[in-house]
Structure formats: C-alpha cells, structure tokens
Backbone:
C-alpha cells in the first residue's frame, strides 16, 4: 500500500510519478479576482526544487527531439550499490501549441531493462476539467493504477483520485483534495485519504495552508499522520534557500532539512546543496558545456551517522 499512499501529500517527499504543474502564481489579480491556487501536489514544490537530487554511480542521458511535440530520451545508469539499468522514455504532447507548457496535455511512458513500465496521461477534457491516469508495473506485476479528475475554478481547485481499485480483493484508495484562495497570498485547503481492504479500513484528514509573498512562500500540512512544513525564500536572482520540517506519527521520526541553490549565469553553472538533522550533507553541481548541447552533473552525499559516502557523475546530452 506504500506505493499508493504516496498519493497523499502528507509527511514525506512527494512521489507523484510525473510533475506536470508549474509553480502557481499568486500575483495575477489584474481583474480584481483571486487567483487559482493550483494543484495540491504543488504546495511544497518551490522549496523542494531548491534541494539537490541524489546521484550515485555513472549516468548518461541522451535526449532527442523528433518534432515539436514528440520527444524521446535514453538513460544508462551504472552503479556498484544498486542494480544498473537502461531506461527508455517517450513523451508526446497533444499539439505544437502546448510544446512549451509544462501543464500541457501529454502522453508519457518509460520502460527500463527489467521490464518495469511507468505510463502517465494528462488530458484537458474542458478548459477547467483535467483528467490523469497513471499505471506502474514492477517487472510483470501491476503495482499502481490510479485515475484523477481535477476541476480548477477561478479561485479554487478540487480533485478526486481513485487508486488501485480491486473488486476481487475488495480494496480501494480514495483521495480528495480541495484548495481555496482566501486572499492574493493566502491559500487554505485539505486532503482526505480513505482506504479500504479486507483487513483494514480507515481515513486520514490533512489540513493545508500556504502564505506567499513575491520573494518567499511558507507552507504547512498537518493531520493525524504528522506534519510537513516548508519555507522557500529567494534572496536574489542567484541565490534561493529552502527549509523543511517533516514529522511522522507512524514512524515516530522527525527530520529538519536546509537546502540552497546558487546560480552562476556567467559560468553556466548551478549548484544545489543540503544538510539535514540526520547528519547527511550533499551537493550537486550542474555545468553547461557550451557550445556543446550537454550538461555535466557531479554530486556527492555524505552520511556522517552511517559513515557512508555516495558519489555520482552524469552527462545530459540534448
């Protein structure tokens, strides 16, 4: 059930298979109306984008644009810690008009060398109604199949997700989201997760709030499962910082993390670093190799408590 409960936006990092929503804007009030708050999955995204993504081993990614709305990529990952793999990724946008829109209707699929499949579709049924479908397999077994319908009003967003429905096992997970813009900077809402199976049945309610200003965003999720708070601040055009606090009542663990991002446009470089209360320190450097269409990625993470070192090198071409 863990892979499906990742739908919940409670404590812990988001595990939405494909991030399709750009960071929502709160400042467009030219007509006097409140802005749409965006998706529930995007509440903590501004802060999370500051933190570096762990890299281990050697990874090479080759991207190829076949047309303005059809793209493919090949990923080869060699590792001494985890199994090495090859992954093929294909992405098809609905039309050329959406080619530069991160929230565009799309069909996305990934398959790796073990036979695991990750497929996602995003469709705009109307101007306000969007539908998503996600299918994930682990080799020959289905692990996730979920369907979501989202309605975006002028100043609110409501969504319902059905995950892993199984008539034979009499199990299902239902997730309901609602966000309401109270002012140009304040958003309030909540999430209700209901799960039912032969052995258990229950629900978890999580309340959420976000307050935004032009240079910073503060977000809080709190409920029976724990709490997740984040703060994002843009110091200037080059430096961004983020702070996260996560507490889980199920695992009885709390984690505090600090991350920052530094951009050096003159050197075509971006550096992201982090440190958390588990004594983990890490950083990732991305260097654009102009005039070549390639990016060099170097990263290292040290776990002082576990006495472990993780080093990675990657190249992104295209």
Residues:
């Amino acid at each position: 059930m863990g892979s499906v409960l990742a739908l919940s936006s409670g404590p812990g990092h988001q595990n939405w298979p494909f991030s399709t929503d750009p960071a929502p804007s709160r400042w467009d009030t030219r007509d006097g109306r409140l802005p749409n708050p965006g998706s529930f999955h995007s509440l903590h995204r501004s802060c999370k984008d500051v933190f570096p993504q762990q890299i281990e081993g050697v990874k090479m990614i080759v991207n190829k644009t076949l047309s303005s709305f059809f793209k493919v990529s090949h990923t080869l990952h060699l590792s001494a810690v985890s199994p090495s793999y090859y992954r093929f990724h294909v992405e098809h946008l609905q039309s050329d008009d959406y080619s530069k829109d991160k929230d565009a209707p799309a069909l996305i699929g990934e398959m790796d060398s073990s036979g695991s499949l990750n497929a996602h579709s995003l469709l705009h049924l109307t101007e306000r109604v969007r539908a998503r479908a996600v299918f994930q397999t682990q080799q020959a077994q289905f692990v996730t199949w979920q369907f979501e319908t989202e309605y975006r009003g002028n100043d609110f967003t409501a969504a319902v997700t059905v995950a892993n429905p199984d008539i034979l096992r009499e199990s299902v997970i239902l997730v309901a989201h609602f966000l309401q813009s109270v002012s140009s900077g304040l958003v309030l809402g909540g999430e209700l997760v209901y799960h039912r199976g032969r052995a258990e049945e229950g629900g978890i309610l999580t309340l959420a709030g976000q307050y935004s200003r032009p240079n910073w965003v503060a977000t809080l999720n709190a409920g029976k499962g724990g709490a997740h708070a984040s703060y994002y601040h843009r110091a200037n055009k080059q430096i961004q910082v983020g702070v996260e606090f996560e507490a889980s009542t199920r695992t009885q663990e709390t984690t505090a993390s600090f991350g920052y991002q530094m951009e050096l446009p003159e050197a075509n470089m971006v550096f992201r670093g982090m440190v958390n209360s588990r004594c983990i320190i890490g950083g990732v450097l991305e260097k654009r190799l102009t005039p070549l269409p390639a990016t060099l990625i170097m990263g290292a993470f040290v776990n002082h408590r576990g006495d472990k070192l993780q080093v990675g090198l990657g190249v992104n071409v295209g």
Remarks:
- DSSP finds two helices and 19 strands in the chain.
- The chain has one domain: 40-317.
